[in-house]
Write a structure and sequence with these properties.
There is one protein chain. 34% of the residues lie in helices and 24% in strands. By secondary structure, it is an alpha/beta fold. It has a domain of 168 residues: Ribonuclease Z/Hydroxyacylglutathione hydrolase-like (Metallo-beta-lactamase, Chain A), CATH 3.60.15. The longest helix is centred in the last third of the chain and has 22 residues. The relative contact order is 0.11.
Length: 311
Amino acid sequence: MRPRAPRATALVLAGAAAAAAIGLGGCKATVAKLSDGVWSVSAPGVANYGIVAGEFGTVVIDSGPGPVPGDELAKLARRLTMCEVTYLVNTSADPRRVLGNQSFKRAEIIAHSEVADELEVRGSAILRRLRSHPKAKALGAGECRIIGPTLTFEKRTALRMPDRALIISYPGGGPSPGASAVWLPEEKILFAGDYVLVRTAPELGESVDLAAWIASLDALESVAGEGARVVPGEGELSGPECIAWMRDYLKELHTAVGQLAAAGATLEATLKTVRMKRYRSWAGHSERLEANVAAAYHAAARLAPAGRKED
C-alpha cells in the first residue's frame, strides 16, 4: 500500500457486544453477527457495511452516505468491539461508501488508487448532490467534507492480524473506477461492494465496463467458492449463488444491447427493445432500466470499430 498522508494508528484490543438495529441517517439498519468479531450492517435502499474486530483494532468496511450515518457506524463499531476503529476500507467512490469518512478521525483509510483519483476529481459534484438530497439534513450534508484515502493499493493488499486476515482486492473493475471487495478467508465471508447487489438492479454509471464487471464476478466466484457467505453492496445476505445472479443480469443486458448496437440500432430503438422482463421483481428495475440500457449502449459505442456512429 502507498501512503497518501501520515496519520497515527491506534493499537487496541477487541472485545465483544451485540446489537440488533440502529438508525443510519434516518434509515433503519439491521446489524447481523456473521462470525466471532464480524458483523454486517444492512440499510435497505442505501447500502450494506461491515465491521471486523481483531487484535490490532477494528476495521470498518465503507463509511456511510454522510457524516451523521458515519458517526452512527463509528459508534456502533466501538460498541460492538469495545475499541477504536484503526482502519476504514472504501470499496468505491460511491457517495454511500465514502461520505462518512470524516467520522473515522483516527483510522487509516484504505482504497484503490482510482478511488482516490475519483474523489479528487468529482468531490465537489458529490457534495453538491448530497446537499440537494431530500434527506440532506438527516445525513449531515451541511458539515460534510470529502476525505480521501490515506493508503492506496493497485491490485490487492492485506490486513493481517494474529487472529484473522482481510484481503482487499481489485478483481478487475467494472461497476466504477477502483471498485474493490474484501475477503475474510478464515471465515469465508465476502464483502462484495458494488460488484454484487441481491435482487436489486444496479445503477450503471457512465464509466461502466460490463465485460470487465462480468470477468470480475468470475474472479470473485472463484475466490469465494462453495459455502461462502456474501455481503452484497445492497440487498440481503446470501451465499455465492448471488454472484451468479448478478452476472446473469449483466450478461443479458450486455448481450442484448451489444447485439442491437452492432447491428446499427439507434439508442431510441434499443431503449424500446431491451426490457429485461425476468428482472421486473428486482428493486429499482423499472426506475433504472432506461438509464442502464443507455449506459450499456454508450459503453458498446465506445468499443465499436472506428467509423460506426452513435445516434
